[in-house]
């Protein structure tokens, strides 16, 4: 197996086909096709199902994505190490975080890490589906994922970073009682909900159901980031992270809930596959979460 074949395999995965991979790599399509077929022959498995002009990962191909990304990460780490001066940490730190958690403690950790290791670059990407936090690590998309608990994954280690409080947010002209507002007795004001199947939405639905009083539905939106703009447009109220609601505090009505709707969030990683950069980041996290006593 050649490193070039692994790079071409991942390029096809990430660009959803040979054409996109060839463009991204700056090579001809036959070059990518030949490299893939040679890799499949060497491994003795079919990595893709070729359907018309499309490419769909086979079961073996899906299994290979994580190890392939780990190979590339390890090779990059070796290159960074050789290029660095003695005892200097260099390389890349890859994190994915859900929008609600990519603030506060996460930003503070990145700032401290960059101040300590200025030769390390950081990529903070968006984790759009918190239920896939474990699989993004297992598939090699990142070394670290930040999401609300629980984070499933038998091989993962999880460190709690803090908690996120959710509040009710309404248009500024809405007639709602002074807070806190009982979750089981929300005002009869139209609401913007996210679909069930997302952990926060499920917990919110259950809390409403216990009270037996459900406000009318205005919009069911799969785009979580559009909830606040919909409130600002007067479409309805919603449940929103306090940190996000605070960005529009002068244009909306914010009410706490009764009981408080709070969920902890954490950072997850696989301790068995950490790069030197990842290991240094974990050490920094532990020192900040549990600082040594005098």
UniProtKB/TrEMBL annotation:
PROSITE patterns: HTH_LYSR (PS50931)
InterPro entries to which the protein is assigned, alphabetical: LysR_HTH_N, LysR_subst-bd, WH-like_DNA-bd_sf, WH_DNA-bd_sf
A Pfam family hit: HTH_1
Keyword Transcription regulation: yes
Keywords: Activator, DNA-binding, Transcription, Transcription regulation
Segments forming domain HTH lysR-type: 1-58
Name of the protein in question: LysR family transcriptional regulator
Organism: Gordonia westfalica
């Amino acid at each position: 197996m050649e490193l070039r074949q692994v790079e071409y395999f991942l390029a096809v995965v990430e660009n959803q086909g040979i054409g996109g991979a060839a463009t991204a790599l700056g090579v001809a399509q036959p070059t990518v096709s030949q490299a893939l077929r040679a890799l499949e022959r060497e491994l003795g498995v079919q990595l893709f199902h070729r359907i018309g002009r499309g490419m769909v990962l086979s079961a073996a191909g899906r299994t290979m994505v994580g190890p392939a990304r780990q190979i590339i990460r390890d090779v990059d780490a070796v290159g960074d190490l050789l290029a660095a001066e003695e005892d200097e940490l260099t390389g890349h730190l890859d994190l994915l975080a859900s929008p609600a958690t990519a603030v506060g403690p996460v930003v503070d950790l990145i700032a401290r890490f960059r101040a300590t290791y200025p030769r390390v670059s950081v990529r903070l990407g968006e984790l759009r589906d918190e239920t896939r936090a474990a699989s993004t690590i297992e598939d090699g998309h990142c070394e670290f994922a930040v999401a609300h608990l629980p984070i499933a994954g038998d091989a993962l280690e999880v460190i709690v970073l803090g908690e996120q409080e959710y509040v009710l947010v309404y248009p500024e002209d809405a007639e709602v009682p002074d807070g806190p507002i009982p979750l089981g007795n929300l005002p009869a004001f139209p609401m913007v909900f996210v679909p069930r199947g997302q952990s926060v939405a499920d917990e919110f639905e259950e809390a409403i159901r216990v009270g037996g009083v459900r406000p009318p539905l205005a919009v069911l939106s799969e785009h979580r980031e559009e909830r606040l703009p919909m409130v600002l447009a007067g479409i309805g109220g919603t449940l929103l992270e306090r940190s996000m609601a605070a960005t529009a505090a002068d244009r909306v009505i914010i009410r706490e809930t009764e009981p408080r709707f709070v969920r902890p969030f954490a950072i997850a990683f696989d301790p068995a596959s950490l790069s030197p950069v990842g290991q240094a980041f974990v050490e920094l996290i532990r020192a900040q979460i549990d600082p040594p006593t005098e």
